[in-house]
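Design review, sub-item: ligand-bound model
Attendees: FS, YL, KQ
YL presented the inputs for the zinc ion complex:
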Amino acid sequence: MSAPSAPSAPAAPPPYEEEQTKRNEAPQESAMYPDVNGSTHQGPFMPSNTAAVVYQILPTTPTVAICPVCKETITTRVKYSNGTFTYVMTFLCGLFFLCCCIPLCCRGFKDVNHFCPKCKAFIGMNRRI
Ligand SMILES: [Zn+2]
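KQ shared the predicted structure:
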C-alpha cells in the first residue's frame, strides 16, 4: 500500500522585507506625467508657461504704476486702439448722423493700452466696454 501523498503546500509568500524592496524598485507612477504628444517624462509636473501675468485695469491717462517685468515704478505710456466700443459707436454714428468716422478719430471712443516706457512691456488696459 502506498502512503497517500500529502497535498503539496502552496509556496510560502516571500518574506515581508523582500516585498518592500520590490515596491521601492518599482517606478513611481506619480512622478510620470503624460506629455501633450503622449510621451511621458519624469520629474515634477511643471507647466511650460509658469509666469502668470495679471493685467491691471488702469485709467485712460498715463499713470504711475509698477512694471511687472522690470519691477520699477514708472509712468505708463499710453496707446489708443480701436475696440468694441469704437466700432459700436462707429455703427451708431453712421446710422444716426451719417458720419461713421468720428469715433475712429476721437480718443474718447478708443481703448487705452498702457506700456512700460523702459522695457516696453504691456502693463494694463482700459476698455470702454
Ligand atoms: Zn518695465
